[in-house]
Every structure is written in structure tokens, then in C-alpha cells.
Amino acid sequence: MIETDSIPYNRELLSILSECQRSISVLQTTLEPKGVTLSCEIEPELYVRADREMFDAVVRNPVSNAVKFTPAGGTIILKARREHSGIRMSIQDTGIGMSEQSRRKLFSDDLSVSFAPNGETDNARGFQLVRKFVKIQEGRIEVCSTLGCGTIVSFSLPSG
Questions:
Q1: In a 10 Å sphere around its CB, with 0-12 CB exposed, 13-18 middle and 19+ buried, how is residue 133 labelled?
Q2: CA–CA distance, 11 with 26 (Å, rounded to integer)
Q3: What is the CATH number of domain 2-158?
Q4: Does residue 80 have a pLDDT over 70?
Q5: pLDDT tens digit string along 32-75?
Q6: Which residues lie below 8 Å from residue 60, measured CB to CB, with a gap of 6+?
Q7: 3 state DSSP class of 160
Q8: Structure pTM?
Q9: Distance (Å, rounded) from C-alpha 47 to C-alpha 80?
């Protein structure tokens, strides 16, 4: 186990599909009442060397936000693929999207509360933790979004 910034870090070989299915099962009860469809386009043989709890948070936070900001009838797609010496994963939704100002705020230390057009609030604390977990695991994260069209959160991590 490695200790990074006082956060215990235990890197192990993880099946991306299995870990994503585990994360999604926790969120299933919030998907069904909203009428949001979630699908996985992840090959069973994709693996990543990562801390299980951190990987779970890195997947679950963007999926939770996608559920929160996607209207009834919308879709969320989880994808993963091999890339160079690692994997690249994305969480794409057909939600309300965000402005460029809001997107940039995700990568700052500003934790002020923002109000979305659908009445939901978010202070980006969860995303800031996700950013930290990705960095600790030697990865990168990015967000692409268009107001009114949805959001794609992508991250890369070293493979197993």
C-alpha cells in the first residue's frame, strides 16, 4: 500500500467492466424513477491497475452527476478502450450540459454552489475529489460539455 497525500492507496489489477457494473448497481435505484437509460460499452478483457475505492469514486461521481442532470428519457453511456499504455474511459450523457464558465470552474478550487437550469445544485466537491484520485493514480481527466446538449467526462489511467 502506498500513502499519497495522507490518502491510503492500494493499487491492484481491476476488471473495468466488473468495477463499473458494481458502481452502476449502487445507482440503479436512482436511474429507474427518472427514466434514464444507462449502458456500458466496455470489453470484458479491459483491466486497469488502480486503487479499487478510488476507481469506484472516479466512475460513480460522474455517473451520479449524469443521472442528476439528465432529464427523463435521457441516456448515459459508459465506454472504455485501450489507449497507448493505459485505458481511456468516458461517461457521456444527454443531459443539460454546462456552460464553458461552469466547465472551467470544475478545474479550479472554487467550491461555490451553482444552480443548474433544472433546479439541481452542485458545488463540484465530488469532482474535485475525482480529479485528485485520477492524479494520484497517474492519470488525466477532462470534461467536454455543451449547454443543452450533454456532457462527456473522460479519464485515462495506466493499464494493468
A1: buried
A2: 22
A3: 3.30.565.10
A4: yes
A5: 888 999 999 998 899 999 999 999 999 999 999 999 899 999 99
A6: 23, 26, 27
A7: coil
A8: 0.87
A9: 10
The DSSP line for 69-107 is: HS-TT-EEEEEEEEETTEEEEEEEE-S----HHHHHHHT
DSSP 144-155: EEETTTEEEEEE
Q: Is 141 helix (H, G, I), strand (E, B) or coil?
A: strand
For range 121-143, the mean pLDDT: 87
On whether the CB atoms of residues 51 and 89 are closer than 8 A, the answer is no
Q: What share of the chain is helix, strand, coil (3-state, %, to 5)?
A: 35, 35, 30
Rounded distance, CA 76 to CA 66, Å?
7
